């Protein structure tokens, strides 16, 4: 039987408990792969062993930091209502691509075509900005504006993704099964925040925890985003400073 340690000695577990990361689903919904991470149940709701969750989170953070240190990208994916805003906010703050909403099929497996659509969106936005679209009739501009809005809705989050990402992070791999399948097909490692109804064997770094609560999702998304930023920092510091131009070296 586990003995409880003072919260001060387990700050991460205390934080996980506060955001409700320990809440799973009813036993009837549990996927067999989640069983080793279940501590018990209360009011018919299974509870995760937060010590195991902490271990999984630390492993995922170490992996994400390593990807960042190599100067590579991680695609953040979260389409459910509880996840969309936090995924978008964390990814933008970290300079990472994201799919906050519907994951468009082919984003990974048909990346060349998806990239062409992104390029078209950027071109149309540029032409609208400079007034080049004024050469079209009012009706034609209306149709172009609608096309821009649709392209932005689908691809605004992946503008910075010039090539396939080195890893994918998903909130709820059961819901985001298309993203997981595409990543697996291309052998792109997948990190996932996964509740007890998910098949944890489908992802490379499963974090067994509550993926239904906004507070819980926000905690894990920010932990991983912060790990990426921390991993990227040393690479930036190691980069040589740009040479001063001849004009800058002239003294008065």
Describe the structure concisely.
Helices cover 45% and strands 12% of the residues. With 252 residues, it is of the alpha/beta class. The model is unreliable at 1-8 and 241-252 (pLDDT under 50).
Please explain how this structure is put together.
This protein is an alpha/beta fold and 252 residues long. The chain folds into 2 domains: 8-107 and 164-233, Rossmann fold (3-Layer(aba) Sandwich), CATH 3.40.50; 109-162, Helix Hairpins. The protein is 45% helix and 12% strand. It has 7 helices and 7 strands; from the N terminus they run H-E-E-H-E-H-E-H-H-E-H-E-E-H. Strands 4-3-5-6-7 form a 5-stranded parallel sheet, with helices on both faces. Helix 3 (81-94) links the parallel strand 3 (74-77) and strand 4 (98-99). The longest helix has 25 residues, at 214-238. It is elongated and about 65 Å long. The termini are far apart. 35% of the residues are buried.
